[in-house]
Amino acid sequence: MMLVLSVFLIPGSAFSQFRPSPDGIKLERTIQLVKGLYVDDVDTEKLTEAAIRAMLAELDPHSSYLNEEEVRAMNEPLQGNFDGIGISFNMLTDTLYVMEVISGGPSQKVGMMPGDKIIFVNDTLIAGVKMNNQDVIKRLRGPKGTVVNIRVLRRGVPQLMDFRIVRDKIPITSIDAAYMVTPDVGYIRLSRFGATSADEFKKAEKELRTKGMKHLMLDLTGNGGGILQTANEIADEFLSEKQVIVYTEGKNQPRYTMNANGDDELKGSNVVVLVNEASASASEILAGALQDWDRAVIVGRRTFGKGLVQRQLPLPDGTMIRLTVARYFTPTGRSIQKPYEEGNSDAYNQDFMNRYQHGELFAADSIHFPDSLKYTTLVNKRTVYGGGGIMPDYFVPLDTTSSTFFQANLNAKGVINRVAIAEVDNHRKKLLQTYPDVGSFRKNYQITDEMVAKLKNIATDEKITWDEDQFATSRQLIFAQLKALIARDLYDSSAFFLIINDENELFREGLRIISDHDRYNGLLKGVGSNVAQQK
User: Does 366 participate in catalysis according to the annotation?
Assistant: First the structure.
């Protein structure tokens, strides 16, 4: 779960302004009647919590109740370290949705993905069972080195997938990768907007500039958001003082505008921002601001559409509610929040599947916007559209040409990662002597027939039937994953993305755009976009 910190302050006397309403008296009276007259003993604390949770669930998908342990668990991905499997999740309608897979963590290594639904943990059914976040956390966390077996349901996969995950110390950093793609194009991958993310970003930016970076690719794919102030501090690196970054407004909240305080440290640089359907919240605020000011070309697929502002409101017993009090709007006035039906979180969470089924992830001409959602950017006066999420300036379809169930199963069972680990453990010294840096490794290292044989042997041990046809289809992707995982173990996380991005069409399209000055400027002027304009 990702925490979005509100920009509003709560006066100390705020709650003294409220008086019990007839509805509040009615709820209190009901609890007292149950406590005094019900046939058996009851836990009124649990009843009260259940009532609050149910009440908030009727409002919108993001208003929620949290006990003290849930608050701590929610904040950890933004500020600390812990032993676990390395995911952020949300427990909605009795189903555990994986919201984020932490880079470098055990879950990523075996191939778990955002959007997976965890059904079983160590043979215990958790889907469709009344279970709070802390109950789930107790099952997923444990000492480093211990094993947890998980079964997940993944969209598009007909059967449950089994994962064997070895718990480890979970690193909470924000920059997954920072490296030079070409002599003048740098790449930074930001996985979250945490407490230290702005400092990490500025440090990475400074280091790349010393290496000759003139233009920047900022990768926000899969970034579920985080702290609003962090997004603003990063936006300062691209915008000039007093330019609007985002504003919030709600029925009981006056408009509050957040402006840039920086001086566009990257002035004169071409900037491409990579986004996809899992880029949410603070990612959308940053991408929307740069798009509205014509400061960057946004490349990828329409973002998630999380644009509701939650205020943390403490309750007398130390618990709290996160109540939606306003909406986020980009500088042009576009609402980031996608539509939702009150009290219908199932439909809200099926939005990705709807996009998949309607073809939005595969074809730009399947996406249409009504004229009522048309907006004009603030510098070049080109047309952009609202309606939920940030629509990119250039659409890149989801690449399914090399993905197969066989490859996904190898990943899920940890087969690919085990072969990579074995290769490094057995040959680390020789590998580093032969390939002293990631550049030489990327250029010259080849997957051997011996490693393919190990893949087959471990697949057999995991009861995976070797499918030669699917292996041929996914061969290049499997080899790239192997090579990238070996590179990460030998060098660092940047090495992983340096190699795996060679197989990433979204990345490659972004690189083509940022490297072509005329095409880049054309897109900033509304020329060359492949996104449908209206219906």
Answer: no
